[in-house]
Amino acid sequence: MNKRGKSLKIGVRGCVLAVAFLMLLSASKAFPCSYIIREVGFAMPRKSYHIYCLVRGSSPGEKHMAALFKAVSDEVLKESNVEAEVVEVDRQIPASMEAQLGSIDLNDLPKTILISHENKVLVLPKVDYTSERSVRRQLEDVVSSPGREEIKRHIVRNWCVVMLVEGTDRTENERAKEAILRASQQIVGTVTEKGTMVKRKPYLMRLSPQEVDEERILLWSLGLPEDGGRRPSAVVLFGRGQRIGPVLEGERINERSMLSLLYTLGKACACTTDPKLLSGPQIPLRWEDEIQEEVCRELGFDPDNPLVRSSLAMLGLFVENPNACTREAGRRTVMDYIENPVEEIGGGEKEAPTIALPVSTSSEARDASSAQRSTLDALRSSLLTFGLIFLSVGIGTLFLWIKRRR
Hints:
By secondary structure, the protein is α+β, with helices and mostly antiparallel strands. The chain is built from 12 helices and 11 strands.
């Protein structure tokens, strides 16, 4: 084969490869995400808590307590997102713990502290650290409580769990409850961006002021007042007990704000959602194999499967890195939602997260709007695909023409 023939063959191959690559790239962008945010919640990495048993370690008695704590924690904290460690304060304290231990009285030892993935510190009540029964009860309280067991019973089967912590005003409690129930009823029958229908309404879990004491760790982990507070507060939980959006309090517990959070769980791509909404805390929780099997049956796939997790990461759903997605600043519209800022309760962060609010409460209007946007998106994608193909063919043809001229 002469030199011109070889050049022609190489040029044709390059053109074919370029066209195939561009078609594959465009096709991957044309297809919607395979999972909605509610499903992704079961695949997101668990956020770890650390419980430290602080001892001096200078006496045989304290060494025995340390060994007992280690043995019991290995058993009790299995299958949970809580890790245990014994710290002998007489030795050099790890640099990573210096900030957390700065406010702790190290003269009154032994004691246990719980540190969240947000570096919040909770000093746990003192127990008899020479008693296996006492240590076991304390560790059980860290990963389990009546409220958390109730959450586990409903968070997989229902759309999500809405936890309402009641205040001292019965009228305000009733108003908040009715707002949550109205929003929960409206979400049933709606169609997610994946095209599936919401069949089961969120589960409403109510905590009365009398139940607050035994749920102290649960409330603390979610950023709620540990004493329950004077006004009612509410959070929406999904996945493995993760909070979506901010804590709602008082009059902020209304139908519109609640409905917006419930809609957000049905979005098909986390990259179109404010990352702050999806970076909320997870509760310390034991997640047994039985409940994971229930997740697989409910979703129709195993969210812990490496192939599923890889596909989620490739789709930009930040399974491994929640900050991987970027978004345009300011107010924007995504599908049939408008994102508006919602302030954090209690003067939290200066930059408030945004919550997707439905443009219309009419299902017909939402369906028409969604269908119109889907059609436009498909048309744009097709035009882009063909445009890139023609551009590649044109470049390849020009390249071959130049080769022939030479």
